Each structure stands twice: as C-alpha cells, then as structure tokens.
Amino acid sequence: MTAEPVEHRVQWPVPPQDGYTVDDLFTLPDLPPHTELIDGSLVFVTPQRRFHANALDLLVWGLRRTLPAELAVSREMTVVLDERNGPEPDISVIRREAITGPDQTSYRASHVLLAVEVVSPDSESRDRTTKPQKYAAAAIENYWRVEKNGTDGRPVIHVYELDPLTKAYVHTGMYRDRVKVDRPYPIDIDLTEIDTL
What pTM was computed for the model? Predict the structure, then answer.
C-alpha cells in the first residue's frame, strides 16, 4: 500500500488595491510571526540561523549593560514609520516612555534612537538599502547593520548616524572585534564574545 501525496493549500491574503496599512498588519488573522509591512506589502521572514540568534543575544546583552535608565532595549518589535511601513528591527533602543505595557505590539519611530538589523540571506537587500532609507526618512538617528564576517563568522557592525541636513545616514565606522561608540549613549561591546555562545 502506498500513501497518497498530501496536498497543502495555503490561503494567502489578497492585498487591497492600494496595499496594506499598519492597521491591517495588526488585525489580519493568522499572519506568520515577525511579518513586516514595507511599502504596503507584507513581508514574511524565513526562520533564522544560529549566527542571527547569537548576534542578537550578544548585542542585546551588550546594549543593556550600559543603558541609561530613561532608555530600553527591545527585540523584534514593529516600528510604525508611517501608514504603509511597519518594519520589525531585530533590536531597537527606545525611550522608556514609549513602553505602555506587556501587550504592546509596536513603537512609533519617534521613540526609537537606534535600529539594528542582522543581515540574513533573505533580508540582504532590505537591510542594506530599503530599511535604512526608511529609518532615515523617519528620523531614527542611529542605524547598525550587522553582517557575518566570512573568515571567522563573527559579527561585523556597520554604524550609521543620521545627517539632519540630508536626512540620510552617514557611515561612521565598521567594527570587527569591538564596537565602541558614544551614540545614542556610550556603548562598548566585545564582539569576540560570540565565540562563547
């Protein structure tokens, strides 16, 4: 006896003519976890790799170590940039006043001081071009793009600051073994500690 093949049918949501809004992102039923809204389109995220998870753990711990009391570090929360854009940075440093409670699902861009994206194969273009442009347009002052170093597998952090005149990010440094910066607050993280995770 042979088993009959099982046919899987997924009922994909049909987008409205003008695209989705942030309200849709929070009310559509059964969206996969970590769904983002970019330019009115839903973006589904693939399962992450070990490097991604370890880099997030290392950076969250490092960011919290010297965090001023008026700020907080949040992981994988939607940031509402405008009506048609609700990306989910891997890490956000936010003003503590933005926290409304344990059921909160998003922050406004005006509350975010630093957005961090760890690049994955499926997110390269979004993390290198689309998201930084949108974060800059929303006046998020600092952006970090984290890549995996091809030789030792450790994180390489590209640090960007917002130029208020051009409303675009300026690359201010690339860090391999240690990231030590003064913005948005004094931060010093030993990136080689990823080897112990």
Answer: 0.91
Q: Which of 24, 195, 179 is nearest to 91 (CA)?
A: 179
The token duo for 101 is 């409670």
Written as one string, the DSSP assignment of 56-125 is HHHHHHHHHHT--TTEEEEES-EEE-BTTBB---SEEEEEGGG---TT--EEEGGGEEEEEEE--TTTHH
Q: What does the alpha-carbon distance between residue 36 and residue 87 come to, in Å, rounded to a whole number?
A: 5
Model confidence pLDDT, tens digit, residues 179-191: 999 999 999 999 9
Calculate mean pLDDT across residues 161-174: 97
Where residue 159 falls (left for φ over 0; alpha for ψ -120 to 50; beta otherwise) is beta
A 10 A CB-CB count for 42 gives 19
- What are the tens digits of pLDDT across the range 20-42? 999 999 999 888 899 999 999 99
Distance of CA 142 to the CA centre of its chain: 12
Give which of 158, 164, 154 is closest to 124, Cα–Cα: 158
